[in-house]
Specification:
The complex is a heterodimer of chains A (322) and B (537).
Chain A: H1 8-42, E1 55-59, H2 62-72, E2 85-90, H3 106-118, E3 123-128, H4 134-140, H5 143-147, E4 153-157, E5 164-168, E6 177-181, H6 182-186, E7 189-193, E8 195-199, E9 203-205, H7 207-210, H8 219-224, H9 226-236, E10 241-250, E11 261-270, H10 273-283, H11 297-304, E12 317-321
Parallel strand pairs in A: 1-12, 2-3, 2-7, 3-4, 7-10, 8-10
Antiparallel strand pairs in A: 1-11, 5-6, 8-9, 10-11
Chain B: H1 3-24, H2 40-50, H3 58-70, H4 73-78, H5 80-92, H6 107-120, H7 126-129, H8 131-165, H9 182-194, H10 202-207, H11 209-217, E1 226-227, H12 236-240, H13 264-268, E2 274-275, H14 282-285, H15 295-313, H16 343-349, H17 355-359, E3 365-367, E4 380-382, H18 395-399, H19 410-415, E5 420-423, H20 439-443, E6 449-452, E7 461-464, H21 474-478, E8 487-490, H22 502-508
Antiparallel strand pairs in B: 1-2, 3-4, 5-8, 6-7
Classes of the chains: A alpha/beta (322), B mainly alpha (537).
């Protein structure tokens, strides 16, 4: 993997200019976050029946279940505003077909992109950094085909270092810097849409594990310690919305399979990536057994570090059948 | 524009088009190695060296067959090396013909005889001087990557500009291939282009052994230069002939072995005395001067080639007389491309054109320096750290002009085992550092790696099923351990067969290579019986 710079001097100048821009932007985002927090305070979760749940769970075919879950969450308009840039992060990192349940359901990704556009998104980018040949992964996963005719939407296999920006991770415990996909950093709205599956190294692979697909150097994460590194990158890449594809669940032999597939016809949605991951962990059987969220190291660490909640027993969960 | 220029440029463009097709993996039903198979020395040298004739060599046979009729039209109209050098001459401003230079014309015959002499001993030196492989390497391994680099830089600058000033999003990426031994190609071609200061078409006049081979057949071509009695001996043609094929003192004569029928003399003659008639004219019948070297010199060149071959056959790494058993010193980690024929045969067939390297979509095939000795110079090696062998690809075999890499269907190609993966336990994150890393297993399409629990290690560790491993190198490529990977492919167990189905042979050797193997990770959890990757309560 090359990390060539085309001209160090000019690059440094660009970096400087960009970091200033980045700073201004982060100020703006901070303001938005503050406002959101305030509105949350004004709207106690136990109060009105109308207020969205912490976690929405919908059963049905992927597209309809997604619509139903998002209705519970207050509609896509609560997340995507007119003209905003949206980055959708599915799992399309394997050369297998969707039926093998190693990659996100293409129908779900398609519907998600359409809904973002309906909510007024200026542009939608569907991106992942596949391990295997990007062309093959994008094609075989069915996601490229599913999204190619959606106006204002493009599917990216982000395999070039030029697409990433090297950044320090403030407050990291383990991974202090890495390259992050520029499109993800620039996006106004980041949506994680992983498939629910087992992972031999981390127990399960869900939204947070999936953020590795927006990161340039994954090798160093394995070298250091995978689970705390996943939490570190999630402090930079915090999805505003997490949609977990549990239409098919790869219950054994993940992440690549082939393994046992549970047909659950479920879509899980939450503002809180940790909560979504925690819920999915406890909702399905992995290798024939049930597990608690705290048995997944990265979920436990993320909750400890305040990135989200894993105490699903104290959260509002609304279920619906589409 | 002149007819010959149009043909020349069209031919070069077609050559480059085929090269781009090889890069893109598109064939449009054309043989991508067509130009290579038109190279007379490549074909003659390979036939002599490997003692085998292949029907695919027909294009060069045709080139050789038309030469007594049309002279060296291949050199003047078709050869992309000639056109490239011609273009270089124009760009750099070539020098005028000088007297006395003609005696160096014979050097190319020495080169030819040297190579044929070595080929008689079964050693291929074709790659040192055969023009089409050289020019294929020049464009494929040197120019193409630079073009992609410039494209990539353009994209980066464009993206930065969009970030700064706004504008439409720039999509797409350019992958820039990287190659070894570029320094050689750079120096070699720099020298050739610079040689235009010495003379025009320096390579074609003095060095090209393929040209020499054609010269032997064009002593009295049917299509030839003829000069009428209108000639005033002005000597203009002699001084401007790009091949220096006209004697200064008697411009009515022609060295037909040197003439490439470019017809420049016809165009510039102030008296229109020069024509290029077909058939046995009066002019053709007159005594023609010759630039061919003496028989003794030719024999010496051949003997020198044989001598060089003999020395290389007695070098330590040579496979001469070593078909099996002990005492063989082989390069320890040299992986050949999948479906490469047995090494001895491979070295005699491979012409080092670099076509396989250009075509490899993973950029995994690289030319080597002296890893396999002098006779292995610039031959291809699979470098998994750079790129791994795609289980759905067989491009290297489809573009190989001499079938040193066999063209076999993709399913059979998977059985053409390149080597076997091996784990350095001391470097492995799971074995040594007890970290939960399973990248090698995750990427192995053949399911040849199993994670097992071993005593004293809290995390499961990788173990290789050698019979399932085809040596594709995806594990080595993706291993997160930097520099020297913790899992490497060694040539152990490579299947090198000249004929027959790899699947059949592999099965007889109890190999079990398949993309359909089921996984079973159930046993990878920890002691408390939890599933893999989960913590105990």
């Amino acid at each position: 993997m090359s990390e060539k710079r085309w001209n160090p001097v000019i690059q440094r100048w660009f970096d400087k200019v960009l970091s200033r821009r980045e700073f201004l932007k982060s100020q703006a985002v901070g303001g938005v976050v503050l406002a959101a927090g305030a509105s949350g305070l004004l709207r106690p979760g136990t109060g009105f029946a109308q207020s969205p749940p912490d976690i929405a769970v919908a059963k049905g075919t992927p597209a309809r279940a997604l619509r139903a879950a998002m209705k519970l969450m207050g509609g896509m308009g609560a997340f995507v505003k007119s003209g905003q840039k949206v980055l959708i992060k599915p799992n399309m990192s394997f050369t297998t077909k969707p039926e093998m349940a190693a990659t996100t359901n293409p129908e779900l990704v398609r519907e998600l992109a359409i809904m973002c556009r309906e909510a007024g998104a200026g542009s939608v980018i569907v991106a992942d950094y596949p391990l295997a040949s990007a062309d093959e992964c994008l094609a075989n996963s069915g996601i490229l085909d599913a999204c190619k005719n959606i106006d204002g939407t493009r599917v990216v296999g982000a395999t070039s270092d030029a697409l990433y920006k090297e950044m320090n991770i403030p407050g990291a415990t383990t991974l202090t810097k890495n390259g992050f996909l520029k499109d993800a950093l620039d996006a106004d709205v980041l949506i994680a849409v992983p498939i629910a599956k087992t992972h031999a190294a981390t127990g399960v692979s869900l939204a947070m594990k999936g953020m590795m697909g927006l990161v340039w150097d994954r090798r160093v994460m394995h070298q250091l310690n995978l689970s705390p590194c996943i939490v570190d990158i999630c402090t930079v890449l915090k999805p505003h919305l997490t949609i977990i594809d549990a239409s098919r669940v790869l219950s054994t032999n993940g992440p690549g399979g082939p393994g046992k597939i549970l047909v659950e016809n479920t879509v899980i949605a939450s503002r809180d990536m940790v909560a979504a991951d925690a819920y999915a962990t406890s909702a399905f059987e992995w290798y024939g057994k049930k597990y608690l969220p705290k048995q997944v190291q990265y979920i436990r660490l993320a909750a400890e570090r305040g990135l989200g909640r894993m105490d699903i027993e104290n959260m509002t969960v609304q279920k619906v059948t589409a | 524009m002149q007819f010959r220029r149009i043909v020349q440029i069209a031919s070069l463009v077609f050559f480059l088009f085929l090269l781009v097709c090889a890069v893109q993996g598109a064939t449009y039903g054309i043989a991508l190695d067509l130009f290579l198979r038109m190279d007379p020395l490549l074909v003659v040298g390979t036939i002599v060296g490997s003692r085998a004739f292949q029907l695919s060599f027909l294009p060069a046979i045709i080139v050789l067959a038309v030469t007594p009729l049309l002279g060296r039209v291949f050199c003047g109209y078709i050869c992309p090396m000639g056109t490239t050098i011609c273009g270089g001459d124009r760009l750099l401003g070539a020098s005028k013909n000088s007297k006395g230079a003609k005696r160096y014309h014979r050097v190319k015959f020495f080169v030819l005889l040297f190579i044929i002499g070595a080929a008689l001993f079964g050693v291929s030196f074709v790659f040192f001087a055969s023009p089409i492989p050289l020019i294929t390497r020049f464009y494929g391994l040197l120019i193409y990557p630079v073009v992609t680099l410039v494209g990539d830089m353009g994209l980066r600058i464009g993206r930065s500009a969009v970030e700064l000033f706004g504008g439409p999003t720039i999509e797409g990426t350019v992958s820039v291939p990287h190659y070894a031994t570029l320094f050689f190609i750079l120096v070699f071609f720099s020298a050739l282009f610079f040689a235009s200061r010495v003379s025009r078409r320096f390579w074609c006049r003095y060095l090209c052994p393929s040209g020499a081979l054609l010269a032997l057949l064009s002593r009295r071509p049917v299509w030839h230069r003829a000069v009428s009695s209108d000639c005033i001996d002005c000597g203009k043609c002699a001084s401007q002939c790009p091949m220096n094929a006209i004697p200064e003192d008697s411009p009515e004569k022609t060295y037909h072995t040197e003439c490439i029928i470019c017809r420049k003399c016809e165009k510039i003659c102030p008296k229109d005395a020069v024509t290029f008639p077909f058939g046995r004219t009066k002019e053709a019948a007159q005594e023609m001067p010759s630039l061919s070297p003496g028989r003794r010199q030719l024999i010496f060149s051949g003997l020198a080639g044989m001598g060089a071959a003999a020395v290389s056959l007695t070098s330590l790494g040579s496979l001469y007389g070593q078909t099996g058993g002990v005492g063989i010193v082989e390069p320890p980690m040299l992986l050949r491309p999948p479906a490469a024929v047995p090494e001895k045969e491979f070295l005699s067939l491979c012409v080092r054109c670099g076509e396989c390297m250009t075509a490899c979509p993973a950029n995994a095939l690289q030319p080597i320096w002296f890893d396999a000795g002098l006779t292995g110079l610039f031959s291809p090696r699979l470098v998994p750290r750079r790129g791994a062998c795609d289980p759905h690809c067989n491009r290297c075999g489809t573009v190989c002009p001499t079938q040193a890499i066999r063209e076999v269907p993709v399913p059979d190609r998977r059985w053409a085992k390149v080597g076997t993966a091996m784990i350095y336990h001391q470097k492995c994150l799971a074995w040594e550092q007890q970290k939960r890393c399973m990248v090698c297993d995750e990427v192995c399409p053949y399911n040849a790696i199993e994670f097992q629990k071993v005593e004293g290690n809290p995390v499961p560790v990788p173990v290789i099923h050698e019979e399932r491993c085809t040596g594709c190198g995806l594990c080595e490529h993706h291993c997160p351990v930097r520099n020297q990977a913790a899992i490497v492919v060694t040539p152990l167990g490579a299947l090198r067969e000249s004929r027959g189905s790899f699947e059949e042979i592999g099965k007889r050797q109890e190999l079990d290579i398949s993309l359909e193997h089921k996984k079973d990770m159930e046993n990878q959890g920890n002691e408390e019986g939890t599933a893999p990757g989960f913590d105990a309560l």
